[in-house]
Design a protein that fits this description.
Blueprint: H1 6-24, H2 28-40, H3 50-66, H4 69-80, H5 89-101, H6 105-119, H7 129-138
Keywords: TPR repeat
Protein name: Tol-pal system YbgF family protein
TPR repeats: 12-45
Length: 148
């Protein structure tokens, strides 16, 4: 995994922290602007850097909450191609949600099933019921007894 030089890593991290605070306040538009600023600082070979994974996931999350589902899906798909993106339960969850909203059930199933495999039922706890319900109608999920 490649870590950016501190001259890039530190300002990207600072912008993302600012974006995270705005996001937590429900100010998704302002958060998105901070994440986009961070994205502009990524090197051109951005998919080799761990920072790209979390910048793109943050961008995708903000876009998801702003209703830009296509943009969110693109951001999460990029995050999956970066270090530690594939197999990240949250990234699979949000991408699966995007795919379902975009009426692509086969892709949604693949992503939501992987989110479940990686994060268990807990990954769905704070999400709308429709995503787990969709998964349950297509996959035989083991009974949840406090473990995934």
């Amino acid at each position: 995994m490649s870590i950016l030089p501190s001259i890039l890593h530190e300002p990207i991290e600072a912008l993302c922290e600012q974006g995270d605070k705005l996001f937590e306040q429900g100010n998704y538009g302002a958060a998105l602007q901070k994440y986009q600023e961070a994205e502009t600082l990524l090197p051109s070979d951005r998919e080799r850097w761990e920072a790209t994974t979390w910048v793109m996931a943050a961008l995708g999350d903000a876009r998801f909450f702003l209703g830009d589902i296509e943009g969110a899906a693109e951001a999460f798909a990029t995050a999956q191609r970066c270090p530690n993106g594939l197999g990240n339960a949250f990234i699979h969850l949000r991408l699966g949600q995007c795919e379902l909203e975009l009426m692509r059930p086969e892709r949604a199933l693949e992503q939501l099933a992987e989110a479940y495999r990686q994060g268990g039922i807990e990954i769905f706890e704070d999400e709308e019921d429709k995503y787990l319900d969709f998964l349950k109608t297509r996959v035989d999920l083991p009974e949840f007894s406090g473990q995934a």
